[in-house]
Amino acid sequence: MPDILLHPFTERQLTAYVTQPAHAVIMSGPTGSGKATLGRQVIEQILGLPPGGFQKHAYTLLVQPPDGKAIGIEQVRELERFVSRKVPSTGTHHRAILIEDAHQLTIEAQNALLKTLEEPPAGTLIIMTAQQEQALLPTIRSRAQTIQVKAPPREAIEAHYGAQGHTSAQIQQAYRMSGGLPGLMQALLTDAEHPLIAATARARQLLGQSTYERLLMVDELTKQKALALDTLFILGQMAHISLQTATGSAAKRWQRVQQTSYDTVASLHTSAQPKLALTHLMLEL
């Protein structure tokens, strides 16, 4: 099994999948839950590759959103060209595709992907990661198995990282920042590269600044939508964890942080005025 810490439910689903792989699977879970890492490790295990072999293997393909944009039909066309090539058959499964953030596939791209999902080449695995499987078309979901990547219990997290030599203070801090999401926990505790590391630092910075200082950052975040969304996600996670123990005025502030973060995410996805949405956020924090 993959070496990332798993919720028991997720681990059972992954064990069943590795034992008898379906041609397509959606790994569903929030950003920071470790879906991309799991996808790579599952592919390496099924294809018999060494750790880290996904990147070097001639018959694996990674599809990602380009620079925070949607995954378009041209990337799906490249995927189709990839699966059309002949592969020396060395086992039951010998080729794999990992589509990260598949919820960012355009409708046109999802419809184009349907043909490959309906008539998958023999020996080919297609693993998609998504924040929510409902973000994908029903026709996509109906042609793929779904694995829920859940956060492990807190006690398991503390024991796991304590056994790795991390102090209780380090574990508690990483837990508060990540909400217990295993991918982000691992990144925070090992200094590994992760897109939410910068967002975590930015979220902590915002919470410690004056309103004036926060307003000075609106222009920068308006130009970096991906960082803004990741920062809002971290603020929501920090608020969720803090509200489990906070009382009085602290609880009221964390409730405000949580609600404003969620509202701002919705505004950034639907509004043509991101600067206005971020300005409102800075005033509310």
Outline the structure in words.
The protein has 285 residues and is an alpha/beta fold. The protein has two domains: 8-148, 3-Layer(aba) Sandwich (Rossmann fold); 154-284, no CATH class. It has helices at residues 8-19, 35-47, 73-84, 107-118, 138-141, 154-163, 168-178, 182-190, 195-208, 211-215, 218-223, 225-242, 248-270, 274-284; strands spanning 24-28, 60-63, 95-99, 124-130, 145-148. A five-stranded parallel sheet has the order 2-3-4-1-5, with helices on both faces. Helix 7 (168-178) packs across helix 8. The model has no long low-confidence stretch (mean pLDDT 90).
What spatial form do the alpha-carbon principal axes imply? globular
Main β-sheet, spatial strand arrangement: 2-3-4-1-5
Briefly note the CATH topology name of the largest domain: Rossmann fold
Say which CATH homologous superfamily of the largest domain is assigned: P-loop containing nucleotide triphosphate hydrolases
Classify the helix fraction into a percent range.
55-70%
Mean pLDDT: 90
Helix and strand content put the structural class at alpha/beta
Q: What topology does this entry show?
A:
Elements: H1 8-19, E1 24-28, H2 35-47, E2 60-63, H3 73-84, E3 95-99, H4 107-118, E4 124-130, H5 138-141, E5 145-148, H6 154-163, H7 168-178, H8 182-190, H9 195-208, H10 211-215, H11 218-223, H12 225-242, H13 248-270, H14 274-284
Parallel strand pairs: 1-4, 1-5, 2-3, 3-4
Helix pairs in contact: 3-4, 6-7, 7-8, 7-12, 9-12, 12-13, 13-14
